[in-house]
């Protein structure tokens, strides 16, 4: 059996390392980390205790896996468990930060500089673009595409096969932070399967974007969007239908 190419300049405290793993110089892998087969860990990666890395994962320079949320200056008390689960065939871009209590499904790509907060769950074959923020307790399905510089609010749900363009903003607090944190009303948008959100759109708290609906570029969505509707404008209004809605008038 060939030796794993682990640099003498790396700090590796775990023994749970699979076959054909490469760990480059100046990477730090703490104890109680499990690394699958054929994993590539580039320089200056930090992986904290409790992380599980699946087979064929590549983690690019400067990524941080297992960041603990601190309560300093936060209006919301952080809640998390000290584990991270990265599925097989994932790619983690340079300087991405994945907090504790996060899971990634198989074949998912996390872009350069992206941030994935605690209690978030991301499905398989999903792309989280460069410098995207996925806030706490955000649930993202399979085959989702989130383009660069988008901000996803906490307590948000995105179902399978959704496309979200670049620079999209979402929110979960109609009081804009003036009333402190009271978890129950702070709900982000719910984007149903197959929906598409245009570049620069803004989705307000707790709105539902229906199945297969389209939100035009720059729209401000203040109310629920029915299944199959195309909405545009500020505030967003229905302009046409991609299919007849179920119930009600067209």
From TrEMBL:
InterPro entries assigned to the protein according to its UniProt record, in alphabetical order: GMPPB_C, Hexapep, Hexapep_transf_CS, Trans_hexapeptide_repeat, Trimer_LpxA-like_sf
Keywords: Acyltransferase, Repeat, Transferase
Entries under Gene3D superfamilies matching the protein: Hexapeptide repeat proteins (2.160.10.10)
SUPFAM superfamilies for the chain: Trimeric LpxA-like enzymes
Domain of life: Bacteria
Domain (Mannose-1-phosphate guanyltransferase C-terminal): residue spans on this chain: 84-168
Signal peptide per UniProt: none
Matches recorded under Pfam families: GMPPB_C, Hexapep
Sequence similarity: Belongs to the transferase hexapeptide repeat family.
Protein name, entry field: UDP-3-O-[3-hydroxymyristoyl] glucosamine N-acyltransferase
Phylogenetic classification of the source organism: Bacteria, Pseudomonadati, Pseudomonadota, Alphaproteobacteria, Hyphomicrobiales
């Amino acid at each position: 059996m060939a030796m794993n190419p682990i640099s003498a300049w790396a700090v590796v405290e775990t023994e749970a390392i699979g076959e054909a793993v490469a760990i480059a110089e100046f990477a730090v892998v703490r104890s109680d980390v499990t690394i699958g087969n054929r994993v590539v860990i580039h320089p200056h990666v930090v992986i904290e205790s409790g992380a599980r890395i699946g087979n064929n994962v590549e983690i690019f320079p400067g990524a941080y896996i297992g960041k603990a949320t601190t309560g300093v200056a936060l209006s919301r008390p952080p809640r998390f468990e000290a584990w991270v689960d990265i599925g097989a065939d994932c790619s983690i871009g340079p300087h991405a930060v994945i907090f504790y209590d996060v899971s990634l499904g198989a074949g998912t790509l996390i872009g350069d500089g992206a941030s994935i907060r605690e209690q978030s769950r991301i499905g398989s074959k999903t792309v989280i673009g460069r410098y995207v923020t996925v806030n706490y307790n955000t649930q993202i399905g399979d085959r989702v595409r989130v383009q660069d510089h988008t901000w996803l609010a906490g307590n948000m749900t995105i179902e399978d096969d959704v496309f979200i363009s670049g620079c999209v903003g979402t929110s979960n607090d109609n009081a804009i932070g003036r009333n402190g944190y009271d978890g129950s009303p702070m709900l982000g948008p719910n984007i149903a399967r197959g929906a598409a959100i245009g570049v620069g759109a803004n989705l307000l708290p707790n709105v539902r974007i229906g199945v297969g609906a389209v939100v035009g570029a720059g729209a401000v969505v203040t109310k629920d969007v029915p299944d199959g509707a195309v909405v545009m404008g500020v505030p967003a209004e229905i302009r046409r239908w991609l299919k007849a809605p179920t119930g009600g008038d067209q």
